[in-house]
Write a structure and sequence with these properties.
Elements lengths: L3 H39 L4 H33 L2 H35 L1 H35 L4 E3 L5 E3 L2 H5 L2 H31 L4 H37 L1 H7 L6 E2 L3 E8 L4 E8 L2 H7 L5 E2 L14 H30 L7 H9 L2 H18 L2 E3 L3 E2 L10 H32 L12 H4 L3
Length: 454
């Protein structure tokens, strides 16, 4: 436990896991806010605009928390991962800079416009601001994912004489096929998070018989968006990413499925416990030949197991990788079932009277955060033992002058600070939900004088 590299990895893993709670919510809500604002322009029902105002305030809180928790991660590239930054900064520094200059400032500018500018700009320009906020939010996510995708599947780079990396083909780097597939999967997963949160609040208000028009709008939009996004997470985005992993990282695929032996008609494990010492999967429940089809589109395809690769190239924590992947897949399947059933009840006109489904939606909102976290853990654990796959090992990337004690000290500080921030965020969101969809600052609220004809 005195190994500095272990603590560097733990600190970065902790801070990025906590940070990503907030961007996944903002990216999901950004699209749903555009839908609400668009419907407000098309209809005379004020509930759409009231709902948009409320969710813009929740977006603002989440965005602020994302900014605060994202800053420490940037510093860790220099403090904890100096060797990695020195060698790869000529590549990943470009997308991180583009994220800050082009995307973050676009997003942060239009958050203020949405929160305080409705009266000044009017409904059409306010809708345009929502669209630009969506563009900034998703563009920010894309640049971050391009950075991650380069570490998973490095393309478009060249080696300098000193061994460092530089961009050789910018278009190939920015439009990395891995990045495009990962971005599509990530964004629909973020929509799942936003939709579950929106439907949970709508269901809660419905159970309490409060704010009925806005509760109905939030509930219905959340359920419909959740159903579509939950389906897209599995197919085609998740399926395509699985095939990409099979083609570029077959050892990762084997670890994710707890597969040690190679063979044709490879089964997909639904349940099981990887036993690395004995090179087997204990107590498996499997679907025959399904993994062969998922990986290669052929039920009889050969899928290599871990024993087909050198052990030094195996992911360093196979057990955690296996369970993270299966938690993600299992929860994704449950999400599809919940939203499918809720949509059926909504179509039959009984959703708002179905208390058991309303309670299910209310209590289900934390699980997309868990599924997204598990998904990112599977991606990052699957890349190990590489920082940049096939180019630079994790053991080569740490800061040689930062010892374990200093990292543990700062990790404890982050844990305490983030606990306080987390409690504060939950308290503020609970306060907003308690207030309900009251008018936000700068919103146009008709009064008696303006509502009465001259």
């Amino acid at each position: 436990m005195s190994d500095p590299l272990f603590w560097h990895r733990l600190q970065f893993g902790f801070t990025i896991t906590f940070h990503y709670i907030f961007p996944q919510l903002t990216m999901g809500l950004a699209l749903l806010i555009v839908v609400l604002k668009g419907m407000a322009l098309r209809t005379s029902d004020s509930a759409w605009n009231d709902a948009a105002r409320f969710w813009i305030r929740i977006f603002g809180l989440s965005f602020a928390m994302g900014v605060v928790t994202g800053v420490p991660m940037e510093f860790q590239f220099g403090t904890n991962w100096a060797a990695f930054t020195s060698r790869t900064g000529g590549v990943i520094g470009q997308t991180l800079a583009m994220e800050g200059i082009f995307a973050f400032f676009l997003e942060s500018s239009f958050v203020a416009v949405l929160l305080f500018g409705e009266r000044r700009f009017g409904p059409r320009l306010h809708f345009a601001a929502a669209v630009l906020l969506l563009a900034g939010s998703w563009l920010s996510g894309y640049f971050i994912i391009v950075t991650s995708a380069f570490m998973q599947h490095p393309v478009g780079y060249a080696l300098r004489a000193d061994g460092s990396l530089e961009i050789a083909r910018l278009a190939e780097f920015v439009f990395n096929r891995w990045a495009i597939t990962q971005f599509a999967h990530n964004q629909v997963a973020a929509i799942v998070t936003g939709a579950f949160v929106m439907s949970a609040v709508g269901a809660w208000w419905t159970l309490r018989d409060e704010h009925r028009p806005v509760a109905r709008v939030s509930l219905h939009i959340g359920v419909l968006a959740g159903l579509v996004a939950a389906a897209l997470v599995g197919f085609p985005t998740g399926h395509e990413q699985g095939r990409m992993i099979a083609a570029s990282q077959p050892v990762t695929l084997a670890a994710m499925e707890g597969r040690f032996e190679s063979g044709t008609r490879a089964p997909m494990a639904l349940v099981g416990q990887p036993n690395v010492e004995e090179r087997k999967l204990d107590n498996p429940i499997e679907l025959p030949a399904v993994l062969s089809w998922i990986a290669y589109g052929d039920f009889s395809a050969d899928v290599r197991g871990l024993t087909a690769f050198p052990e030094r190239d195996w992911p360093t924590n196979i057990e955690l990788l296996y369970f993270a992947f299966h938690i993600m897949v299992g929860l994704g399947t449950i999400f599809l079932g919940i939203m499918g059933l809720a949509t059926l009840l909504m179509w039959r006109g009984s959703l708002q009277r179905s208390r058991w489904m309303l309670w299910t939606l209310t209590l289900a909102f934390p699980f997309p955060f868990i599924a997204n976290t598990a998904g990112w853990m599977a991606a990052e654990l699957g890349r190990q033992p590489w920082l940049v796959y096939g180019v630079m090992r994790t053991s080569e990337g740490g800061s040689p002058t930062v010892h374990a004690g200093a990292t543990v000290f700062t990790l404890l500080g982050f844990a305490g600070l983030y606990f306080v921030l987390g409690v504060l965020f939950l308290a503020l969101v609970a306060l907003e939900i308690g207030h309900g969809p009251s008018a936000a600052p700068g919103a146009r609220v008709p009064d008696a004088a303006s509502a009465t004809p001259s």
